[in-house]
Write a structure and sequence with these properties.
Blueprint: H1 8-14, E1 27-28, H2 31-40, E2 49-52, H3 58-65, E3 71-75, H4 81-90, E4 95-99, E5 115-120, H5 126-133, E6 140-148, H6 149-156, H7 166-174, E7 175-183, E8 188-189, E9 196-203, H8 213-225, H9 231-234, H10 240-247, H11 260-275
Parallel strand pairs: 2-3, 2-5, 3-4, 5-6
Antiparallel strand pairs: 1-8, 6-9, 7-9
Helix pairs in contact: 2-3, 8-11, 10-11
């Protein structure tokens, strides 16, 4: 690379960075892929790019070489810090490394909003991190993630499909979601047992439809928790057929048939019932 840094596999060997299963680590070593992910996360030349779980820094290097003005990398594994320090030296003033748990970070403090997330997320906490970021979607201009393909399929799934569920509703309610490309396990060290995929989420200026988030999550949890049942049965603890009728939803439909706007209507109807 033009930055003078050694090949990533040499860095992994030099610092003896054996991937830890309990940290969900799989190091991405394919430079063409890291560059492709970095470009997908752009524009990079303004604001702050936040990377979670950089490991030895494959994507970090790509973000910087593709023109990122400032990258903040959050890394829980102290073994990776010397490798990241090498990148800091190669890109003076452009990379800040924060040792710690990404689940405990105050993202609003990392830079001027809106931020951009770009990350090859540890599979064991990917969904938890994403739903946490969506607690404050206004902080982010975009969220570009590599996750298990099955999780990406759930994020972007359309109503009426087997992958459509709670995660689909939440993400599509708050964001425009676009699947970008798949990544073969052979691109990683060690190769994971599943195919990965990259997805980009762009938070909407306003949610797709008005709804109280806590009640929307309550409705979707009940509906998809018994997805084989009709809504009149799965939503019975919340009002069943009466709730559906108040929302203008056919109570004999199943959860997977209801679009995001329909669940928002159910949440508003539940809110109205709770006020009575």
């Amino acid at each position: 690379m033009t930055d003078g840094l050694p090949p990533l596999r040499e860095v992994i060997a030099a610092f003896e960075l054996r991937a830890k299963k309990n940290l969900g680590q799989n190091f991405l070593c394919d430079l063409n892929l890291t560059a492709r992910i970095a470009r997908a996360a752009g524009p990079l030349d303004a604001g702050t790019i936040v990377e979670v779980g950089p490991g030895p820094g494959g994507l970090t290097r790509a973000l910087l070489s593709e023109g990122a003005a400032r990258v903040v990398a959050i890394e829980r594994d102290d073994r990776c810090l010397p490798a990241l320090a090498q990148i800091q030296a190669a890109y003076p003033g452009k990379l800040e490394v924060i040792p710690g748990d990404a689940l405990e970070i105050d993202y609003a403090s990392l830079g001027d909003a809106p931020l951009r997330i770009a990350a090859n997320l540890p599979y064991n906490i990917g969904t938890v991190l994403l739903t946490g970021w969506l607690e404050r979607p206004e902080l982010f201009a975009s969220i570009t993630l590599m996750l298990q393909k099955e999780v990406v399929d759930r994020i972007v799934a359309a109503p009426g499909t087997k992958d459509y569920g709670r995660l689909s509703v939440l993400c599509q309610w708050l964001c425009n979601c676009a699947p970008l490309f798949e990544v073969n396990p052979a691109a990683f060290t060690p190769p994971p047992k599943v195919t990965s995929a990259v997805v980009r989420l762009e938070p909407r200026a306003e949610p797709l439809a008005p709804a109280p988030r806590a009640l929307l999550e309550k409705v979707t949890a009940a509906a998809f928790g018994q997805r084989r049942k009709m809504l009149r049965a799965s939503l019975k603890p919340l009002g069943g057929a009466t709730l559906c009728e108040a929302a203008g939803i056919d109570p004999e439909l199943r959860a997977e048939a209801i679009p995001v706007q329909g669940f928002c209507a159910l949440a508003r109807a539940l809110e109205e019932n709770l006020r009575k």
